[in-house]
Design goal:
With about 850 residues, the protein is an alpha+beta fold. It has three domains: about 425 residues, no CATH class; about 150 residues, Sandwich (Immunoglobulin-like); about 90 residues, Immunoglobulin-like, CATH 2.60.40. Helices cover about 15% and strands about 30% of the residues. The chain is built from ten helices and 42 strands. Strands 7, 9, 10, 12, 14, 19, 20 and 22 form an eight-stranded mixed beta sheet that branches. A six-stranded mixed beta sheet has the order 11-2-29-30-26-24, with no helix packed on it. Strands 25, 27, 28, 31, 32 and 33 form a six-stranded mixed beta sheet that branches. A hairpin with a 2-residue loop joins β34 and β35. α2 packs across α4, α5 crosses α6 and α8 runs parallel beside α10. The longest helix is centred in the middle third of the chain and has 22 residues. About 50% of the residues are buried.
Length: about 850
């Protein structure tokens, strides 16, 4: 083992192992299980993804002077917009397992994958090494502090052992639920191209490569990755179990000014697609080429835009879903994982023997030739401009200039590079890290963990509409794949492995920053700034992944041992002590606050604290706020449920169309937390919680919320124990709001020549999406047919009139208003307006 590792470190090929007697793979029936949950970490945990949230820089989303027991240099989160989700699909065939877990956080980390795998092995007795995937949503509004890769502290705050352990345990728990639901299954996959032609859902954000031509059969540039893939998992009789859909979209709809926890873009997508089913089906969005794709959306404000993504995407996603055939015929399933070495001497790209791209040995004080391109436009090799011993970042970003910290190259994008050893000095200054304690090269930069799976044959729908039955190859990649990188994977997998339309899932297993092909990296811009090993790193990872895919997965009759000598194991991270700041004891937890307190209470911008709950609230414009004394967020993750009273006076949770409980899991109910005093977290504090619900349907027509009597019901916890670290002992508490009746909404009407304009005017502090052609804080069109009663001197006439034109959030309904003295408009749900000419 030691000799093999030394050979790897110095760039020599390790000796070939003696081939063992590999077991045969017999096609077998597929079993599948699926489960979902929420990732519940303390409010106050820092949000990852925007370095601007670091107090060492601008601390952009800082709302007040609070800190928490869970943040260090990043600002503390203040509340919950939507609960980040955990989704798991477990596949089993012929003794082989594949566990696909997805969590709504910024990126994956190999340390989490290792711990989750070990915990699942302990609970199930199965050998799952290399068979567990942790994919992520890339939400820039979700938890950080779980990753001990030192260089990413600048994107997610200082590592916190408690957050890490909680995270791993919760994913493990959901995975075990999926395992317990394993049942005979059918599976199929499908592709569609150019499914969002008008960029309504996502769009290309990278302009630097607009003139870059890489492939002879494609024009310059590439734009966003145009493909949508879906994997459909059913019972053999056709009942849905799970839907996994993949395309690339950044999780940045909410922006760096938002301090509330949220799954962001992926959450809006999944909620929208879930509502297409009439039962709880596990819907999992997986990230594809999202590195240079931003969300679009509509709705008038940040929160409504998140919701609009699911509304806009549901139609095309379900159109493809309905075309996918599934089969329960026997399949083979084989998965392999390796951690790919990334030392400078190991990075080499050959493109199957067509190029020879590498970095020459590092030399202190070396002056590169500054020749990036040959006369024919090809890339000049060796890439001597990237002369760095420990890696470099910020390449391509000319706004960052640290004299003496670069790689001594004069040509862009190399001239903007900053050596990693300089960055470590900043880490000492920004975070609570002992001086000279960070080893170089950074241990977390030695390897990149990847996983590849191949299963089939399964029914496959190709982008041209062709139906076939063949294997699907899926690569799970440790970073942010750009559109060109994703296209290169599909092309190389087809050319070198004979696998057409292979799927790439990014933000999985580990994180290496942005993944670009060398030609694209050399265009500069933002994306190359976060790629520690320069222009060749991305395709080096891809090339090594293709190599071991060919070595291990090219045969379907035997199962090779992925790593018999342990050369390609993930980086080992030592456990760190659990934090010992005990939660506050809050004996008054569960006390409702009915009058606005003298002390400060944080609510999201646009809201005014209003604790009056009227007996009646109108659909759409009505809002209910609830304030209470709760527990310390170390133990208290309040669940706020919407309940409705039945005819017998009993209360029951309101369910979505798909059978899920309406709660703060979704955007229906938002909540915030305020400690008093705001700091220090280590001292005694009172913890005040706030929630708001807007009277809108969870799904379907928002103004169609059933009439009746409702209330909000809070289920929380308070600290009771003496433990010195997590897990903390706790006891339950409950709070309920006053009951209130939901009544029809008031519509707005404007009379015109030959008809009238009708709309719903959303409140100025609204956060729910009412219509993709409307605004959460403005006018929203009325769809379908309305009843229009026209009162004249001679009597009244009633007309059923279909919507004609939508303009500026208002709907035009043509009707004869000659002689009208009063006009009453009633929509399909009884919402109404009366006007007089």
């Amino acid at each position: 083992m030691i000799l093999a590792l030394l050979l790897v470190l110095v760039g020599c090929a390790p000796p070939e192992p003696t081939p063992p007697d590999y077991p045969a793979i017999e096609p077998a029936a597929l079993q599948a299980g699926a489960a979902e949950g929420t990732l519940d970490l303390p409010v106050g945990t820092p949000l990852a993804g925007y370095s601007a949230r670091c107090g060492c820089l601008s601390g952009w989303s800082k709302q007040d002077s609070r800190n928490s027991a869970y943040n260090s240099s990043f600002v503390a989160s203040t509340g919950v917009h939507m609960r980040p989700g955990i989704k798991v699909v477990w596949l089993h065939s012929g003794g082989e397992n594949l566990v696909i877990a997805k969590a709504d956080v910024i990126y994956s980390w190999e340390g989490l994958v290792t711990r989750i795998t070990e915990q699942l092995e302990q609970q199930t007795g199965l050998d799952l090494k290399g068979k567990v995937v942790l994919a992520t949503a890339h939400s820039h509004a979700s938890y950080g502090a779980f990753d001990d890769s030192i260089h990413f502290y600048l994107g997610s705050d200082l590592f916190n052992e408690e957050i890490y352990q909680r995270f791993a345990q919760q994913v493990t728990d959901v995975a075990l639920q999926a395992y317990d639901t394993l049942q005979p299954a059918a599976i199929g996959t499908g592709w569609v191209k150019d499914w969002d032609p008008n960029d309504e859902i996502y769009h290309d954000r990278r302009s630097e490569n607009n003139d870059l031509k890489v492939w002879d059969d494609m024009p310059a540039g590439y734009g966003k990755d145009p493909y949508l893939n879906e994997i459909r998992v059913d019972t053999p009789s056709g009942d849905p179990i799970a839907l996994m859909f993949t395309f690339g979209i950044h999780g940045i709809e909410l922006g760096d000014h938002v301090s509330m926890i949220s799954p962001d873009s992926a959450g809006g997508l999944e909620v929208g697609v879930e509502s297409a089913f009439d039962r709880p089906v596990v819907v999992m969005h997986l990230q594809g080429g999202a590195g240079d794709a931003s969300p679009s959306g509509r709705g008038g404000n940040d929160f409504a835009k998140v919701e609009s993504l699911g509304e806009l995407a549901r139609g095309p996603i379900m159109d493809l879903y309905d075309q996918i055939h599934t089969s329960s015929d026997p399949i083979h399933l084989e998965t392999a994982s390796r951690s790919i070495w990334e030392y400078r001497s190991q990075i080499h790209v050959t493109r199957n023997g067509t190029v020879d791209w590498y970095y020459p040995p590092y030399k202190d004080g070396y002056n590169p030739d500054n020749v990036v391109y040959n006369e024919d436009g090809s890339l000049a090799t060796p890439f001597d401009e990237f002369n760095t011993k420990d890696g470099a970042v910020f390449c391509g970003d000319s706004t960052i200039n640290l004299p003496g910290a670069g790689v001594d190259a004069e040509v862009p994008p190399y001239n903007a590079c900053v050596q990693v050893d300089t960055i470590t000095q900043l880490l000492y200054a920004f975070f609570d890290i002992a001086p000279d304690s960070i080893p170089l090269p950074l241990p977390s930069s030695f390897k990149a963990s990847t996983t590849v799976t191949r299963f089939g044959p399964i029914p496959t729908l190709d982008p041209d509409g062709t139906q076939s039955t063949r294997d699907l190859l899926v690569g799970f990649f440790p970073g942010e794949p750009t559109a060109m990188y994703t296209e290169q994977w599909r092309r190389r997998a087809k050319d070198e492995l004979g696998m057409p339309m292979s799927l790439m899932v990014g933000y999985s297993q580990d994180h290496e920053g942005y993944l670009l092909i060398p030609e694209d990296w050399l265009m500069g811009g933002y994306e190359p700034t976060i790629a520690m090993w320069g222009p060749l790193q991305g395709e080096h990872i891809m090339e090594r992944t293709l190599e071991y895919s060919k070595e291990l997965l090219s045969t379907t009759d035997v199962r090779e041992t992925p790593d018999p000598y342990g050369w390609y194991q993930p980086t080992s991270y030592a456990d760190k002590p659990l934090p010992t700041v005990r939660p506050d004891e809050t004996p008054q937890a569960g006390t409702r606050i009915t009058e606005i307190p003298d002390t400060y209470v944080w609510v999201p911008r646009g809201f005014t604290l209003d604790l009056d709950i009227p007996a009646q609230i109108q659909r759409g414009s009505g809002e209910v706020q609830l304030l209470w004394k709760g527990g310390d967020p170390a133990v208290d993750e309040p669940r706020i449920i919407l309940e409705k009273q039945d005819g017998d006076g009993a209360w029951a949770p309101v369910l979505t169309h798909a059978g899920r409980v309406v709660s703060d899991t979704f955007e229906d109910i938002m909540e915030s937390w305020t400690p008093t005093p705001l700091y220090p977290a280590s001292g005694p504090q009172v913890h005040t919680w706030w929630a708001v619900w807007q009277a809108a349907n969870h799904d379907g027509t928002r103004l169609g919320l059933p009439l009746g009597t409702y209330r909000l019901h809070v289920y929380g916890k308070r600290y009771t124990g003496q433990a010195e670290h997590w897990p903390w002992d706790s006891a339950d508490y409950e709070v309920t709001s006053d009951a209130f009746d939901v009544v029809p909404a008031d519509l707005s009407v404007q009379l015109g020549d030959g008809g009238l304009w009708v709309w719903f005017q959303a409140p100025s502090d609204g956060y729910r999406l009412f219509d993709v052609d409307g605004s959460a804080v403005g006018a929203n069109p009325i769809r379908g047919t309305v009843s229009i009663e026209v009162q004249t001197a001679g009597g009244a006439n009633t007309y059923d009139v279909a919507a004609d034109t939508i303009q500026s959030g208002k709907t035009w309904f043509p009707v004869d208003l000659t002689g009208a003295t009063a006009v009453t408009v009633t929509d399909a749900f009884g919402n109404q307006a009366t006007v007089t000419p």
